[in-house]
Every structure is written in C-alpha cells, then in structure tokens.
Amino acid sequence: MSKLRDKLTARLAAGGKGLIVYLAAGYPDLAATRRAALAAAEAGADIIEIGIPFSDPIADGPVIQQAATVALQGGLKPADALGLVADLTAASPVPVALMLYINTILQYGPARFAAAAAAAGAAGLIVPDLPLEEAAPLQDTCRSHGLDLIQFIAPTSPPDRIARISSQAGGFLYCVSTTGVTGVQTVDYSRLAPLIADARRASGIPIAIGFGIGSPEAAVAAAAHADAVIVGSAVIERLTAGGPEGVRSLVASIRQALDEAGERS
C-alpha cells in the first residue's frame, strides 16, 4: 500500500490533478508550520511535504534556504520535525512526506530514522541528493517500514536512466522542471513532455512536476503535462508575508485553478 500513490491516483480518477505543498519544519516556528500545513490541507492540498532543514541544502533556492536557516537558528532538530509529522497525521488525513538530505538520515541512522518516520505517520521520504545508484539500502529500509522513497528525474535524464529510475520509484515520481535549485521562475513546461512520456512508458506511477511553480497559472501549465504539481518556494513566500492564512489563500487559488482546468478538459 502507498498512501502517496493512492491519494494522487484517487484525485486523477476523479478527473483532477494532484497538489503537493512544501513547508519547512520550524519556519518561522513549529507552531506556525503546523497551522500552515493544516491550512494547506483544508484548502485542497493532496499531500503535505515537510522539509527537515539542513545547513547545506543543495537542491534549495534562496527562499527555502532562508527558511531553513531561520529554523536551524531556532534550534530545530530532526526529532522536532518528526514530532510535527505525528501531530499533523493525527489532525488530518492528508498524507505527509518528509523531504530531507541524506546526511541527516545517515547521522540519525537509516533504520532508526525510517522506523521513527513510520511511527510518526509519514508516508514517504524525498531525498534529493541520493542518486539511484546509492539508493538501494535506504530503499529496502523504507519498504520494510511501509515508506515510499521518492525518485527524481530531470531534463538532463536520458531515456535509459529514466526507465531505471521509474522502475524503482515509489509513491510518485518527482520530475524536476529545470536544472538548478528551487524557486519561482518562468518555465516552458511543454518541453518536459518527452521526458514524462519516457517515464510513463517505464512505469504507471503518478508523475509530479516541481521547481518553479509559483502561481495558479503556472500550476495549470505544469499539470497539463503531469499528474500533480509541487509548490514550495511560493508557499514559503506567502507564509512569510501573510502567515498561515496566506498559505491557505494561495493553496485554495491553485486548487481552484487546477479543478477548473480539469472541468474544461
């Protein structure tokens, strides 16, 4: 069973597209992260992605880097993030995935971390600096604890590598829209169509596009080529400017735009 895959598949079966919302644990503090995550869930997010801040976040752009810095300066520890996940999964049926870097898992201990994540109610792990060639041990550990280990494809991934990655993916396949780091930017999502077609031929797993999506219009453009969209930096910006209710407003506007696009198609 995969809570992540099942949630996205149910949304697709109803004629819609999935919406995955990222928040950094501990930004601006744990209480605010909790309120923002629950607001996002109530506004229509299908999956909440909780980031565990790390001092060298190589996949993250300046907005998420700054959020991570604030959280770390506030004393956030991985155990605090796991406690947040437990709180969220007790309060809402929306699945939660953890986004973190491999060093955090290694320092915690892979088996210990997977067990703790599963006990907290997490549905999967997203580890952007773990390549497929080094993923097998953690993949096995995750499977033994009922967790999905999310895999990534990118515009630079050749077809044979996409096939290998897709065959090992769990939950959903994370399609990075552009090379570089996270952050709101203008992206021609149509150029991802061949990449996504290759992934679909290799696996029936839902495909989510992330990086660059910052508005309802961008979400609709990306969703035209995939099964779900991932919104992160724009959510952090809205949390900074408008608090949890600002997050609710942004997520609701994206949910509405995705739903209306689905009705037109």
UniProtKB/TrEMBL annotation:
GO molecular function terms noted in the UniProt entry: tryptophan synthase activity
InterPro entries assigned: Aldolase_TIM (IPR013785), RibuloseP-bd_barrel (IPR011060), Trp_synthase_alpha_AS (IPR018204), Trp_synthase_suA (IPR002028)
Active site: 49 (proton acceptor), 60 (proton acceptor)
UniProt key word Lyase: yes
EC number: 4.2.1.20
Pfam families with a match to the protein in the record: Trp_syntA
Subunit structure: Tetramer of two alpha and two beta chains.
Record-linked HAMAP family: Trp_synth_alpha
Function field: The alpha subunit is responsible for the aldol cleavage of indoleglycerol phosphate to indole and glyceraldehyde 3-phosphate.
Protein name per UniProt: Tryptophan synthase alpha chain
UniProt organism field: Anaeroselena agilis
